[in-house]
Known about the structure:
By secondary structure, this protein is α+β, with helices and mostly antiparallel strands. The chain folds into two domains: 7-70, Arc Repressor Mutant, subunit A; 75-231, Chorismate lyase-like (Chorismate lyase, 3-Layer(aba) Sandwich). It is built from nine helices and ten strands. It has helices at 7-21, 33-40, 44-56, 84-90, 108-114, 150-153, 156-159, 162-168, 188-193, and strands spanning 60-63, 67-70, 75-77, 95-105, 122-131, 134-144, 175-184, 201-210, 216-224, 229-231. It starts with 6 loop residues before the first helix and ends in a 6-residue tail after the last strand.
Amino acid sequence: MEHKVAKYIQIKEDIIGDIKSGLLQPGDKVDSESALKKRYNVSTITVRKAFNDLISEGYLMGVQGVGTFVTKKQMTRGLTSISFSDELLQQGYQIGMLVDLIEEVRNPSVAEKLEIPADQSMICVRRVRLANDEPIAYQSSFVDSRILSLDQAERIRETGSFYKTLKDAKIFPVWASENYSVKQVTDGRIAKLMNMKKNTDTFFVKRLAFDEFDKVIEYAETHFNKDWYSVTINIKI
Length: 237
């Protein structure tokens, strides 16, 4: 006996199928409620149920008075991996990186976070993270120059991953603490690299990464494009 699928589920599955096949692209307008009502021979309530589910699940977005559109696919952090590259790969993205700057610097406030002397130099690696060839984040990582040299840091241009570069230098972060806030991109050059206007709001993440002995290895600051980024936290009760 054939199992009968609820109409709103059928509408959802058809739209998701069109998105996954590429028939519907990010930014495309989907058929109107009235068009879907006629096609599936259903009520307005049924169509709206499908739309509401698709919006809450991140597939669609509604613009009042205009219509319903396919959203950009967001990179969802599950907070299960230290490596940003690994998380992107697990979600099916094509990843890339544009190295902006690698330099040896001194910064007392960052040195305090790394728990090193205020006048101790550190290596700073600044890069743009790409997903499907679009910039989604600007990251700045700081590491004590006594454990990571400038020459070692330059290997990121070959490895394409900061954490692979650390691993090659025998540096092994095993856990991290992150602080999330909303912060504007006030640096015009960074905004240009991220293809956004200056003073645009971004998710701003400050990270401390630790080794197995709970020693601070890295301090990082990242601007994430809010249109591409979300965080999921699972809480066990």
